[in-house]
Design brief:
single chain; 40% helix
Length: 344
């Protein structure tokens, strides 16, 4: 029996060494070491051995089994490495070939304008404040001197979620929230950029979702002249040229008095053209002195403190700044259009 085991060992080692792939190696494991394999078949004859021979043959059989397992394991590693090498060679990429240049993105023109607005006002000492886009009726209207049933609410046709919750129609709620957080302390000097929503029909100059940047200053002795000076300085920095500005009386429920600010046409210099409808002036924002009721409602003594507020549309400013005639270009994801602004 020992001769048969030795012969089996030699034959199995040769077969394992010559195995060409993993499937063949798996078959050899079953052939020699399986439950019905050749080694098991030989060991079934141990019942015919004498008690003295059984331990010797059993020990030899275990050595052969261990040796064959080791041979199979080593061969398996060898075949796996060879298979991996073959696969890598087949899937190799020639990295020396010229590749298509990646397409780089750029800042969206509206985002670029908002960043410019923020930079200008931060340079004037303002801080940037933000607030929720889903707002309560109180902060969006009532705290801004627009009680329920006020006719001025019709100016801002709104998206209501519930009777008391809506998508904000302006960023003015951020002003109220900031004033409340200040608890009557001054100075307050903030701008509030963000998205706003109104039920407008989308056309060349209107969108149901657009952007606003509003500003608020509260302190002792704040006057309309300071408002005009800050806004005139902003306009010149924004459009990069010396501009004339003028204030026209207007109406906003949360400011009194209220004004709209015009700038001399950036295209014709005030001579009159298609852009300014031959008036020489272009309206860019609304503003005014904060209404005493808004101050009092937010915890400020309107006898001691005054302030001004203003609001502008970055979308409209982008139209003017870059000579674009249709606001819808900003929202249609036209790559050809957006590539024009990659240098911003």
């Amino acid at each position: 029996m020992r001769e048969r085991l030795k012969s089996l060992e030699k034959k199995a080692e040769t077969a394992i060494r010559e195995a060409a792939d993993l499937d063949q190696l798996k078959d050899l494991r079953v052939k020699y070491l399986g439950k019905k394999g050749e080694l098991t078949t030989i060991l079934r004859g141990m019942k015919d051995l004498s008690p003295e021979e059984r331990p010797v043959v059993g020990g030899l059989a275990n050595e052969i089994r261990t040796g064959l397992e080791r041979w199979i394991g080593n061969k398996e590693e060898e075949l796996k490495k060879a298979a991996l090498t073959t696969r890598l060679e087949a899937e190799a990429l020639d990295v020396t070939l010229p590749a298509a240049p990646p397409s780089l993105g750029a800042v969206h023109p509206i985002s670029a304008v908002i960043e410019q607005i923020e930079d200008i006002f931060i340079g004037m000492g303002f801080e940037v404040a933000e607030g929720p886009e889903v707002e309560s009726d109180y902060y969006n209207f009532e705290a801004l001197n627009l009680p329920k049933e006020h006719p001025a609410r019709d100016m801002q046709d709104s998206f209501y979620i519930t009777p008391e919750i809506l998508l904000r129609t302006h960023t003015s709620p951020v002003q109220v929230r900031t004033m409340e957080a200040k608890e009557g302390q001054v100075p307050v000097k903030i701008i509030c950029p963000g998205k706003v929503y109104r039920r407008d029909d989308d056309d060349a100059t209107h969108s149901h979702q657009f952007h606003q940047v509003e500003g608020l200053v509260i302190d002792r002795g704040i006057a309309m002249s300071e408002l005009h000076g800050i806004l005139a300085g902003f306009a010149e920095k924004m459009f990069g040229m010396k501009l004339e500005t003028r204030l026209r009386p207007s109406y906003f429920p949360f400011t009194e008095p209220s004004v709209e600010m015009d700038i001399s046409c950036i295209q014709c210099g005030g001579e009159g053209c298609r852009m300014c409808k031959n008036t020489g002036w272009i309206e860019i924002l609304g503003a005014g002195m904060v209404h005493p009721r808004v101050l009092e409602g937010a915890g400020y003594d309107s006898e001691r403190y005054t302030g001004f507020a203003f609001g502008m549309g970055p979308d409209r400013i982008a139209l003017l700044k870059y000579g674009i005639d249709d606001i819808r270009h900003f929202y249609t994801n036209d790559v050809k259009f957006l590539r024009q602004f990659q240098s911003l």
